[in-house]
Amino acid sequence: MGGNGRQRTTTDDNGHRTRVAFRPAEAEDVEFLASRLREADVREVRALGYRSARAALEASLASSDVAFTGLIDGVPAMMFGAGAPVFAESGMVWALGTDLLTAHPRAMLLHGREKIRELLEFFPVLENWCDARYDAAHRWLKRLGFTLSEPVPYGAHGELFVKISIRKKGV
Q1: Are the CB atoms for 141 and 113 separated by under 8 Å?
Q2: Which residues fall within 8 angstroms of residue 132, CB to CB, at 6 or more apart?
Q3: Are the CB atoms for 60 and 67 separated by under 8 Å?
Q4: What is the percent of the chain where pLDDT is above 70?
Q5: Is the entire prediction scored with pTM above 0.70?
Q6: Beta-bridge mates of residue 152
Q7: CB 79 within 8 A of CB 64
Q8: Burial of 32 (0-12, 13-18, 19+ CB in 10 A)
């Protein structure tokens, strides 16, 4: 699977060039990202029962078969991946990010679609849960091709979440 650190450049509507790269996620990335996650990401992981952003990043990385760190202009902006229990066909996809993602939506959408296609080669179905209050994530997920369920109680405190899913074409 990709993620060899290959760097690509995207130009936004204002002519600003953004360098985007992905590499295998490392424990040091948890340290860097934990204190910088977007407020909505922190709210979501707490609703899922994690005591902190760091705990969520550590658990997500540890449970992943594949995990990447996305860098924008050389700075870690997000960590994401997928993992599955033995014999499971679907992968539990996850992503946690910083405000750098919000500042560079076009670059992250273009490269995000590519990474989702790569993950779908590994897992023909990707799914997970997303905080029902997280409208920005819902818009981004839909643009990546995910479908979202109606909100249902989920997580440690029974807050509303939507199930997200995407299937490899032909599956």
Answers
A1: no
A2: 151, 159, 160, 161, 162
A3: yes
A4: 91
A5: yes
A6: 161
A7: no
A8: middle
